[in-house]
Amino acid sequence: MSQDEYLTEDVNPILYSKCKEIWKIFEAQNPNFIIHICGNCYNKFEINEEKRFQREIKKYSNFEIEYHLLPELVDLVTSSTKKEINAKIMGIDQRFFEKTGGNIRALIFEIDAKDLIRIVLDNDEIRNATDLDEKGYESLKNYKILEDVFEDNVRVYDKKSKINRSIVETATSEDNENFFYYNNGITITCNHLSYSKRRSPIIELKKIQVVNGSQTIHALYEAFLKDSSKFENVELLCRIYETQALELSTKIAEYTNSQNPVKSRDVRSVDYIQQKLEKELLVKGYFYERKRNQYSSKSRQLRLDAEKVGQTLMAFYNQLPYEAKNRKRFIFGDKYDEVFNDETTADKILLSYRLFEKIESQKQETKKNIINDTTKFSKKSYILYASYYILHIIGELAQQQAIDLTLSNIEKIWQLYKKAIEYLEKIIEKEKKQSQNKYAHASFFRSNKPKKYFEEIMEKENN
Which residues contact 73 (CB under 8 A, 6 or more apart)? Predict the structure, then answer.
């Protein structure tokens, strides 16, 4: 907080550079700080420690302290302000499974998507109406989703999410009869459930909470509003847990929401291109991990992680170093078909990947040389942030010199490393002049400016 330059005597250069980044923020704004003191105790600090703590904080006007102690935590957990939501739902035929153990009871069954939407709407009568005809189901469009039913669900619905858009598209597609197989289903907790064991049982639920499935339900409701005529065959799996034990209910909500979500990378792992590349690289003696840690038992030197491969391809061949460094989610998302396609081969991967390994190796050597020398550190520490930009520049220089981007030319291409570093240092100097010395490597290489400056320099040289 004091922005003491003598901090360099107490911390290493990397930590000091982070402090300088924070000081740069202070130049543009005066941020407020809140210190949250949390503990499973009833009282604050011991009185003398409390005074000492407050005395230090009062030196700064932009600090606040908030305590979160046992009484508040207990109140949050046992709050009686939750709205009691009851509903009746109909299972499909006799396709259900029940399990009871201790103070919990589980019921798993198949459910019609229209019925699922009905039990979360903001009307008591509708939530208990299990005998709706086609016209009655159309009336569901007149009601809104009751958000209180998702209070125990940690995720907030994101309408723009690609996965949620996919749910909407699947539910209204000609393929929607397979929705059951594509979706993980939903999880509901309740205080009480009862049903009669007959064909298409009606299940009565008391104090329900949807603890996992908020995204699915909201997306289905959006699809229903869009085209309800497509919902005749949309079905999904429903898990209901009956328990009055607060701790157990909380754990169900926590654990069903803490599973690792299926990321785009995992979904793409079964793509034809990914499987083809795995086989091609295996022939060359490399283990391409289209799934995380797929070849964990193999030598690390021979393992190629699909995400890292995508980053190097993106920077080297697609001229997207900024995205490779800062937006890697695009690799298996919006940019997937640009990065991985029929033209992507094992040799192309090995060229960009090996070049990147060489750049990283050079970075580690430079880091060793500058870490204990503040003079060298200030001049050369950009190397810690710039690997993907260096890879990009090397690729551009190779093409300018008419060197084919083939694996057989890797050593010839690598000879351009020093030239790429020279261009990089010119780029940094240009930014320092334009930013009037308010410059930090970390923030500069989190932007697209390095690529823009390189293009400007190359254009000027070529003219």
Answer: 40
Between 68 and 264, residue with greater pLDDT: 68
* Side chain identity, residue 104: I
Strands (E), 252-301: 287-289
Tokens standing for residue 277: 């590349």
What whole-number distance in Å separates Cα of residue 82 and Cα of residue 251? 18
Q: What share of the chain is helix, strand, coil (3-state, %, to 5)?
A: 55, 15, 30
CA angle 18, 20, 22 (to 5 degrees): 75
Distances (CA, A) of 304 to 284, 315, 327, 352, 388: 12, 16, 20, 12, 17
User: What residues contact 118, with CB distance under 8 A and at least 6 apart?
Assistant: 87, 89, 126, 127, 129, 132, 137, 140
Higher model confidence: residue 8 or residue 402? 402
Tokens representing 60? 């700064």
Least confidently predicted of 68-77, 191-200, 234-243, 347-356: 68-77
Cα dihedral sign, 138-140-144-150: negative
What pTM value is reported for the model? 0.54
Distances in Å between the alpha carbon of 396 and those of 210, 277, 316, 386?
53, 25, 8, 15
Q: Which residue in this structure is represented by tokens 């009691």?
A: 84
Predicted local distance difference test score (pLDDT) of residue 262: 55
Q: Using alpha carbons only, give the angle 72, 76, 81 rounded to the nearest 5 degrees.
A: 125
| Distance, CA of 217 to CA of 118 (rounded, Å) | 10
Region 99-114: what's the mean pLDDT? 91
User: How many CA atoms within 13 Å lie on the side-chain side of 389?
Assistant: 28
- Over residues 389-401, the pLDDT tens digits come to 999 999 999 999 9
Through-space distance between the first and last CA atoms of the chain, rounded to whole angstroms: 49
Three-state DSSP class for residue 277 = helix
DSSP E strands in 102-230: the ranges are: 104-112, 186-190, 192-195, 202-206, 209-212
Give the percent of the chain with pLDDT over 90.
52
Q: Are 3 and 23 in contact (CB under 8 A)?
A: yes
What tokens were used for 450?
A: 């390095």
Q: How far is CA 218 from CA 105, 194, 426, in A?
A: 27, 26, 52
Q: Is 325 within 8 Å of 445 (Cβ atoms)?
A: yes
